[in-house]
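Suppose a colleague, Dr. K., hands you the sequence of a protein chain of 390 amino acids and asks what its three-dimensional shape might be. Before reaching for any lab equipment, you can write down a predicted structure in C-alpha cell form. Begin with the sequence itself:
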Amino acid sequence: MDFFSDFLTKFGAQLQSPTLGFLIGGIVIAALGSKLQIPDAIYKFIVFMLLIKVGLLGGIAIRNSNLTEMLLPALFAVVMGILIVFIASYTLAKLPGIRTVDALATGGLFGAVSGSTLAAGITVLDSQGIAYEPWAGALYPFMDIPALVTAIVLASIYTSKQKSLGKEESLSKEESLSKEESLSKQSVAAGEYPTKQKYPTSRQEYLSRQRITASGYPDQQRERVKIWPIVKESLEGSALSALLLGLALGILTRPESVVESFYEPLFRGLLSILMLVMGMEAWSRINELRKVAQWYAVYAFVGPLLHGFIAFGLGMIAHYATGFSPGGVALLAVIAASSSDISGPPTLRAGIPSANPSAYIGASTAIGTPVAIALGIPLFVGIAQALMGG
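The predicted structure, expressed as C-alpha cells, is then:
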C-alpha cells in the first residue's frame, strides 16, 4: 500500500506541472475554436533550441564519463526501436481494416523518438530534482534510426513481395490463356473439342511455381533494400541533426558557459510554448484520425504505455547491472513511449510512399504524443521514484 500511495501522490503532483498544463491548455483552446496560431518558423526554432541544448548537455556528459556505462542502455534503446515496429506488425497489422504498410509506418513512427517529449521528460526530472545521466538524452538516435530503418525495410520487402506475387499471377494467367488458345486451335483442327489446361505442362515450370509459392519472390525479381539512404535521410532530419550537432559541440568544445547563461534560462519557457502548439496540433489531427480505422486510436493509446513499460523493464536490468540511475530508467521509458513528431513523418513519407499519412501521423499527433506526455511521463517517473527512491 505504501508503494501505491507514494506513487499516486507523485503522479498527481506531476500532472500539475506547467509542461502538462500547457499541453492540455492547447487542446482546450483548439477545441473551443480559438484562432490562435504560432508561426511554423517559431515552432521549428523552438525545437532546434530545445534539442541542441539537450545535445550539448549530453555531449558534455559523454566527454566527462565512462563510455562503457552507456553500452547497455544504448543496446536496449536499439532493441526497443526494432521491437516496437515488430509489435505493430504482429498486432496492428492483423486487425480488420488495417493495411500492412500503414501499420508498419505507424510502428516506425511510434518506435522513433519525439524530441519534444524527450525535452518534456527532462524538464520534469529537473523540476522534481531526480538524478539522471546527462547523456541519457543521447539515447535518442539509438532508438530513432533503427525504428525508421526497420519499418521502411519491412515495408519494402512486403510491397516487393506483393508486386512479385501480382506479376506472377498475371503471367500465369497469360500463359494459361495462350496454351488454352493453342490447344483449342489444334483440337479444332483435328475435329475435337478444345479442353482447358489446368496444370503446368513441364516439371521445370511446376517446380518454378512451387519455389515462388514458398518464398513469395520469383528468383529474377528479388529486390535489395538499401539501408544507407534510409539512415542518411534520418540523420539529415531537422530534429536529429540539431541533437547530433549539440552532441558534437559538447564533446569537442567547452560550451558550459553558453549553456548556463543562454540555453538553460530559456529552456522551460520555450518548452511551454512548444507544448501549447502540440496541444493545438493534437486536436486538429483528430479529424484526420476519424478518416481511418478506429483501431489506430486504440493502438495510439495503448502502444505508448506498452512500449514504455517494456523499456522500463529493460532499464531496470541496466539499473541492477550497471547502476543506471532511476531518472535514466524513467527517461528511457519516456523515449520509448514517445512517437516522432518532426523527423519521422518526412522520412516515412519518402521511405513508404504507399502508406497513408493520415493514419500514422494522425495516430501519433492526436493521441500518441498527448498520452506519452500527459500519462507516460508522470507514470514512469512516479514508478521510478517509488521503486528506486529517485
